[in-house]
Amino acid sequence: MNERYADPDVITRLLDESRTWAFVGLADHPHKTVYDQARRLQARGKRIIPVHPDRRPVLGEEAYGSLAEIPEDVRIDVVGVYRRSEFAGGVIDEAIARGAGAVWLPLDVIDEAAAERALAAGLDVVMDRCPAIEWSLRH
């Protein structure tokens, strides 16, 4: 995998300066990695937006069925793509269409073609990295 998807400056900026993270795949399942990651970022002052087809609130936040359903006036700084690699490209395309600032694909979620589309559209891309691990390395 290309190391440009793990640029330390981009990672630090996203962790420090972002305010709103939309977590695609976040449902009210505390045993799931996405739940833990969202909970950790929420505890660090980030607004989290659950995106899951069941549209049930998670961690006290209203959920949406897709990125397109999130109100237009909500700025999405980072889209966490917590779907299997074969579905990541579709989520990244939605993030591009929605005007998100960045996409973050966690460990073992890799789609370089979609990452290239995101970069070409002006989004920052972090891929195959864990927000909690990266936070602990930088703070």
Automatic annotation (TrEMBL):
* SMART domains for this protein: CoA_binding
| Gene3D superfamilies in alphabetical order | NAD(P)-binding Rossmann-like Domain
At the top level of its lineage, which domain of life is listed?
Bacteria
What InterPro entries does the entry give? Answer: CoA-bd, NAD(P)-bd_dom_sf
Domain CoA-binding, which positions?
Answer: 14-109
One Pfam match, given by its short name, reads: CoA_binding_2
Q: What is this protein called?
A: Putative CoA-binding protein
Q: Which organism is it from?
A: Thermomonospora cellulosilytica
